[in-house]
Design brief:
By secondary structure, the chain is an alpha+beta fold. The chain has six helices and six strands. The chain has helices at 2-25, 43-57, 71-82, 84-93, 108-111, 149-159; strands at 60-66, 94-100, 122-126, 132-137, 142-143, 146-147. The radius of gyration is 18 Å and the shape is globular.
Length: 160
């Protein structure tokens, strides 16, 4: 009995340690298309995979269009990664698909299928069938020049 308790305790402590380590790096074992803007990736293939995963997990897809050159894209990533409630809400309700736009690859063919983009980062939210429900920038989520946790959570909850 004591051995079983110690075994369960060891397993649980190992899980919590690995969860903490994963939380710092990548808590949801996200696919590459969710973690980086890569000019070499095919957004059609990634989009197909994101939609399939969204269907399987009963989530929507958030398409974030931008690039490594985009200062606000980095600010957005840092905001999400330093606000656990936002990060958790995002990944529990959406499959994130990052689409690169840069001199190396502007993904013109993919983006020609989407509504017009006026600035970056630009976000599209689709249902898990691919129908666009939202298209826009995230400037309404700013407060005093910074992303607001409350506004961001309201936005994510509104479209989930």
């Amino acid at each position: 009995m004591i051995f079983r308790f110690l075994l369960i305790l060891a397993v649980l402590s190992g899980l919590s340690t690995s969860t903490l380590a994963l939380d710092d790096i990548n808590p949801f074992s996200l696919p590459k298309y969710s973690t980086e803007y890569d000019p070499d990736r095919d957004p059609f293939e990634d989009g197909h995979n994101a939609l399939a995963y969204a269907k399987q997990t009963h989530r929507k897809v958030m398409i974030e269009v931008g690039g490594d050159w985009c200062r606000w894209c980095h600010i957005l990533d840092e905001f999400i990664n330093t606000h656990p409630k936002v990060k958790m809400t995002l990944h529990q309700n959406y499959v994130l698909l990052k689409v690169n736009v840069s001199d190396a690859n502007n993904n013109e063919k993919f983006l020609s299928t989407m509504p017009r983009i006026d600035g970056y980062p630009h976000v599209f939210i689709t249902d898990n069938q691919g129908s666009i429900q939202f298209s826009g920038d995230l400037s309404p989520l700013l407060e005093n020049g910074k992303f607001s946790e409350q506004r961001f959570l309201e936005f994510l909850n509104r479209w989930k």
